[in-house]
Amino acid sequence: MALASTDGENIGYIDLTGEFAIPLRFTGCSRFSEGLAAVCIDDRWAYIDRDGNLEIPTVFETPSPRNFRDGIAGARIDGCWGFIDRSGSFVIMPVYEQAQSFFEGRARVKRNAKWGMIDTDGRLVVECQFEKLGELNAGMAAAKLDGKAGFVSAAGKWLIEPKFDRTLSFVHELAAVELGETYCYIQRDGEIVWTSRPLASLQYPPSPLFV
Question: Mapping DSSP to helix (H, G, I), strand (E, B) and coil, where does residue 209 land?
Fold first, then answer.
C-alpha cells in the first residue's frame, strides 16, 4: 500500500489498483513497517495495522513516531523520546531529546545536545558525545566530534579517524568525504582512492546523509 491524498490535507492508503484500502481519515501517516504504520489523528499519533484498525492508541506527540524495527519503535511523549513495543508500552523509557530507528541492533539517541547509541535492551552502549551521528552501515557509522568527521564502530570506537570536514555514509565500499576544498572517495579502511580538484562541487549526495 502507498500513502495518498485527494485534497492535500487528509491522507489514507491505496492498494495496487489505486483504490483506497484505508480511507482518508488521517492528517499524517508513515509507511508500514513490521505490519504497523504511524498515523496522526487530532494532533496525536497512533499506529494502525494493514486493515486500518487502531492497534496502538493516539497518545504520542509530534513529530511522527519512528518505524518499528526489531519489534520496537521510537515515540515521543511529554517532550521526550523512548521506545515502545507493539502493545504501545514503553520498553525503553522516554528520557531522550531525540531518537532514531534501530539499525543493526543500535539506535541513535540524543541527550544534552549530543548523540550516542543504545541497544535493543535500552543500554547506552555509546555515550552521548558526538555532535552528529549517522546510522550503522555494515558496522560503521559516520560521526562528528569537535568539528571533525570520521567513522565509528557499533561500540563508538573510531574506525576511521575524524580528520574530514564532512562525511557521507558508505555506499557499498566507498564513501564521499569533504576535506578542505576537495572531495574524496575513501574505502572502509580509510584509504583515499580519489580526490577532486579544489573547489569542485558535489552534484549528489542527498544532504541529510552528510555528517
Answer: helix
